[in-house]
Amino acid sequence: MKKNKNFLGKYVDMCTDFGMKLYFGPDGGKPNLINFLNGLFEGEKVIKDLEYRPAEHNGTQDADRKVVFDLYCTSEDGGHFIIEMQQLSQEFFKDRTVYYTSRLINKLVPRGHKGNTYELPEVYFIGILNFVLDRSISEQYCYDVALCDKRNGSVFYDKLGYKLLVLPNFDKKQPDIKSYMDMWLYIFKHIEELEEMPKFLDSRIFGLIFDIGKVANLTESDMKLYESSLKNKRDAESVRLTAIKEGHREGMEKGMEKGRLEERAKAEAEKLKYALNLKKRGLSVEDIAEDLGLTVEQVERLK
User: Fold this and answer.
1) What pLDDT is attached to residue 1?
2) How far apart are CA 99 and CA 106, in angstroms?
3) Pfam families annotated for this entry (predicted)?
4) Does position 254 have pLDDT exceeding 90, yes or no?
5) Distance between CA 125 and CA 72 in Å, rounded?
C-alpha cells in the first residue's frame, strides 16, 4: 500500500508506545483491553470490567529504582494485570518479568495483622514481544507460563501467570486464522499496513480498533507524539535486524574458520601418513623432513 509523505499508514501502529495507549489506554480503550485479555485467557478467566491503576510504582526506599509498566489494571474480581510492549530483547528479560510481578505482589500484601494469612491476589504479566524469545523454538508464538509440578505438569499455583506473545514467530495467513487470539496477533503485526478491517475479523470485537486507530483523526499534537513513537519503534527494529545480521555474519565466520582448521588438520594428517610410508621404505629422516616441510622430531615420532 502507499503511505503518505511521513511514511505513516492509514492506521496507527499497535506496536508503539503511542499505539498501546491509544488502543488500550483509559481514554476510550477499555473495551479493547477487555476483549484482548478475554481473547488471551480463552475462558480461563472472564473479565467483565477493568480499573486502570497508576503505571508507576515507587520502591520501598528512596534509593529503589522506579518500576514503570506500559499499562496496569485490575479486574472486578481482584486480578492484577501488567501489560507491556517490548521492542528489543534484554539479557535478563525473564528475570525482569519475575521481578515486576514479585514487586507488585509485595506491594499488594496487606500490612500488619491483615497480612498474616498470606492470602495473595492474582497477578499476571502480559508481554507483547517484538523479538524472538528463544531462537531454539522458532515456531512458538504464545507462551502460557505458570508455577507447575515438573513431574506431571499440573498447575501448582494458579494465581501467578506470565503470558507472552512473540510477534516475529507469528506468520499465519488469513485462511488459517480462527481463534480470537490469532486475530489479535494478526492486527498487532499488520494493522499499520491495512487499508480497512479484514472481513475475517469479528467487527463486534475489532470494530472499535479500526474506528479509533485512523491516523487522519489524530490531532496535531498527537501526530507529533505518534511520529516520535514510531521512530523509536523503527530505530529498535533497525537495532534488532543489525544484531541478527551480525549474529549471522559471526556464525558464518566461525563456520568458515572451523572449516579451514578442519581442512588444515586433514592435510597435516595426510602429510604425516605419507611421511610414515616414506620412512618405512627406508628414506632418511632428514630427507623426509626437508621434502615435506616437517621437522626431524615430527618424522622421528612417526611409527
Assistant:
1) 44
2) 10
3) PDDEXK_2
4) no
5) 10
